[in-house]
């Protein structure tokens, strides 16, 4: 795997990123530490977390993932400099009052969240600090339409950038990124940064997979022209693209035990739980089998090889899953197969958008 430069920054990352939101809920600390060590051995030194993790978000596990990573750094002295560490400040509460007082995300909230993350992570600096979701109202997490009547924004993008700039100046973060963002948001963050000499967004972390390619409906051009990289999350569509739900469905007695989407109602209510999403996933999974591949191999090879994707974020529950995902790196998809994939998208759209 060759290093990737994020956006127009000097931040180099591995093209596979270890997502850690299962740590502290589905993955215990000892297993999480083993996964962190193994990923580093395999050249995956880019790790992503967030203050609100683990998932599904609960008051009891708020900050647990960062704490587990921080304990790994403490137990492995000298390894911090080998890791590119990304974390995120949560946007407005979205019914999570344990994250912070109030429903917004003020400049002071950004600073306080970053400092709390640094303490849990037991580090002096976060390499990439991202806004987990926009402070303003946007269609995200399964909401398809923008509705200006729902706007409740109280902190401008300029104020958010100023807060992040202060953290950069203080040496607490090195680079900034966005997540679950729109073309307007990317443009505005970049415009204001360039106009006022503030930190420039290096990356956007958005969903991207076979059943959700809405990134290619304008954000790809936006980010390519502005020099902002995509960190693709949910490349396996919360497990739909592994094939494990093809016969059993998402819920019910035959559904896989312990799987996130089968276990947590809050996840099923979003885009991944739509019947249309599972129906589409079954079509792609069968396409993989017809081509002699596993569904997981098709889904990850698609993301690994797309020009739009700088780094693909993988999240796992077991060491076997981690090993499988890493071993898929380098798998090539034929032009004929890519055309079949595009044909399915033309017929099915993006049901998990």
From TrEMBL:
This is Aldo/keto reductase. It comes from Comamonas piscis. Keywords: Oxidoreductase. It comes from the Bacteria. One of its GO terms (molecular function) is oxidoreductase activity. Pfam families: Aldo_ket_red. Residues 15-344 form the NADP-dependent oxidoreductase domain.
């Amino acid at each position: 795997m060759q290093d990737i430069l994020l956006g127009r920054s000097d931040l180099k990352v591995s093209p596979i990123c270890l997502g850690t939101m299962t740590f502290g809920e589905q993955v215990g600390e000892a297993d999480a530490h083993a996964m962190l060590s193994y990923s580093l051995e395999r050249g995956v030194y880019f790790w992503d977390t967030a203050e609100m993790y683990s998932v599904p978000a609960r008051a009891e596990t708020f900050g647990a993932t960062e704490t587990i990573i921080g304990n790994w750094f403490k137990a492995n002295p000298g390894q911090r400099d080998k890791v590119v560490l990304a974390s995120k400040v949560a946007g407005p509460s979205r019914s999570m009052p344990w994250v912070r007082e109030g429903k917004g995300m003020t400049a002071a909230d950004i600073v306080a969240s970053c400092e709390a993350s640094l303490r849990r992570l037991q580090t002096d600096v976060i390499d990439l600090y991202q806004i987990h979701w926009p402070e303003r109202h946007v269609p995200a997490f399964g909401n398809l339409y923008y509705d200006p009547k729902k706007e409740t924004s109280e902190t401008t993008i300029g104020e958010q950038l100023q807060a992040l700039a202060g953290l950069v100046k203080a040496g607490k973060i090195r680079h900034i990124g966005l997540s679950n963002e729109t073309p307007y948001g990317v443009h505005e963050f970049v415009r204001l940064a360039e106009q006022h000499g503030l930190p420039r967004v290096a990356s956007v972390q958005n969903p991207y997979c076979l059943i959700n390619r809405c990134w290619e409906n304008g954000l790809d051009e936006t980010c390519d022209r502005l020099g902002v990289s995509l960190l693709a999350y949910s490349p396996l569509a919360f497990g739909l693209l592994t094939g494990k739900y093809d016969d059993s469905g998402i819920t019910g007695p035959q559904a896989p035990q312990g799987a996130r989407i089968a276990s947590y109602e809050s996840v099923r209510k979003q885009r991944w739980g739509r019947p249309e999403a599972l129906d589409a996933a079954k079509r792609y999974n069968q396409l993989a089998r017809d081509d002699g591949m596993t569904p997981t191999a098709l889904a990850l090879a698609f993301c690994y090889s797309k020009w739009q994707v700088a780094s693909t974020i993988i999240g796992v529950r077991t060491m076997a899953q981690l090993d499988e995902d890493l071993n898929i790196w380098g798998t090539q998809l034929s032009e004929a197969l890519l055309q079949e994939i595009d044909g399915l998208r033309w017929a099915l759209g993006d049901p998990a958008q």
